[in-house]
């Protein structure tokens, strides 16, 4: 398995992300859906990684730069057929290390409050993310929880 920076030009990752958006729409009210679409993920302020097993996409994740020291974790997804196989843990560890290498002092995220998102919240807790107030442009939302992790000593 390898984790690669992806320019999002391939058909397989486009379909993988389209399925992610469809799934989020099926479990999250439209007004609470914060998943970025393919065009938004191609923005210069986003770094996107794909997890490949051979030539098959099995996971993905991204960081969106909020400011010089703060990044937002976006589009974390594991192939449904590969859930609970360690892909998400490996990817999250990689993304956190890359975020620190990129100069971020803090990494934050928004995820769902519904039971569907419980495995994701547990993963983030395991990696030291703490629950926090909404950040950036987010507002309080009963369908969302917000988490943050200090990844550098530069943040007080």
Outline of the structure:
The chain is of the alpha+beta class and 156 residues long.
User: Helicity range of the residues?
Assistant: 25-40%
Under the CATH scheme, which architecture of the domain at 2-106 would be assigned? 3-Layer(aba) Sandwich
Structural class computed from helices and strand pairing:
alpha+beta
User: Helices and strands, in N-to-C order?
Assistant: EHHEEEHEHEE
CATH class category name of the domain at 2-106: Alpha Beta
Structural account:
It is a single chain. With 156 residues, this protein is α+β, with helices and mostly antiparallel strands. It has a domain at 2-106: Aminopeptidase. It has helices at residues 11-27, 38-41, 87-101, 118-126; strands at 2-5, 46-53, 56-67, 70-78, 106-112, 130-132, 144-150. It has a 7-stranded mixed β-sheet with strand order 1-2-3-4-5-7-6, with helices on both faces. A hairpin with a 2-residue loop joins strand 3 and strand 4 (70-78). The model has no long low-confidence stretch (mean pLDDT 92).
Short key terms for the protein model shown above:
156 residues; alpha+beta; Aminopeptidase; seven-stranded mixed β-sheet; 7 strands; acyltransferase; Bact_Acetyltransf
What is the strand and helix layout of this fold?
Blueprint: E1 2-5, H1 11-27, H2 38-41, E2 46-53, E3 56-67, E4 70-78, H3 87-101, E5 106-112, H4 118-126, E6 130-132, E7 144-150
Parallel strand pairs: 4-5
Antiparallel strand pairs: 1-2, 2-3, 3-4, 5-7, 6-7
């Amino acid at each position: 398995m390898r984790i690669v920076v992806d320019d999002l030009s391939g058909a397989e990752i486009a379909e993988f992300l389209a399925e992610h958006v469809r799934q989020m729409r099926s479990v999250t009210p439209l007004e609470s859906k914060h998943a970025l679409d393919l065009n938004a993920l191609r923005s210069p302020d986003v770094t996107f990684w794909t997890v490949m097993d051979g030539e098959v996409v099995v996971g993905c994740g991204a960081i969106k730069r909020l400011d010089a020291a703060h990044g937002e974790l976006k589009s974390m997804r594991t192939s449904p057929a590969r859930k609970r196989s360690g892909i998400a843990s490996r990817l999250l560890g990689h993304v956190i290390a890359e975020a620190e290498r990129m100069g971020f002092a803090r990494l934050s995220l928004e995820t769902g409050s519904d039971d569907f998102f419980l495995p994701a919240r547990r993963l983030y807790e395991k990696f030291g993310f703490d629950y926090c107030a909404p950040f950036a442009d987010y507002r309080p939302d009963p369908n969302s929880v917000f988490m943050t992790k200090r990844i550098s000593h530069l943040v007080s």
